């Protein structure tokens, strides 16, 4: 029993090293069906990332005068190569997505949704900086739901939230778009964290959104699942000002995540200085 427990706490890399040592020399390991699914998913996201580079370059070049004061020193205006950038989405939306139920979106929330969709169209990460109580959660759920049901853009997406609002995010998904398959990734129990890690990696085709907490995101038990081995469509940070200090573990963890784009949700995008922004 002690040996079994010791194996359970081995890191993913350590397990791979042990397995390689036990494998007969010259015999190539055949990936399992689950591993193939993960590889295919990651390859699809990598392709999407590559395809969005032109769109991102066009957007930055078009708005360079506005963006330039905020970019890293030494960064130059992108050289835009002529290419066929056909619209991906039918924008702007004039009414809320049909997949959103249980609520009537207000005009400013629909404006926010159109903004998020336009940033997706442009290949850009972004900040949703509405004040508290204006429906940032609804706008975000509407974005992900629209991408799935009306634009045929699959996930999974990762949403990282403070523990205090974790249950609220789960409830809001059930309320506004019950068809979205949401997996809850949070536990203080080490064995349960290992089980959740396995679920995130082995069932990548069976969920649309993984909701986790900042504590879990920086947990060593979740590193290879959330950071190293899985590519996400969106990584979304609720109360995203929590990563304002780039020296913190959580800020470095988020920067290491593989994804097509990121969204920072916060009512206070600028608290002290422009460097945080």
TrEMBL record:
Domain Helicase ATP-binding: start-end pairs: 117-277
Pfam families xref list: SNF2-rel_dom
Segments crossing the lipid bilayer: none
GO molecular function: ATP binding
Coiled coil residues, start to end: none
Top-level division of the source organism's lineage: Eukaryota
Protein's UniProt name: Helicase ATP-binding domain-containing protein
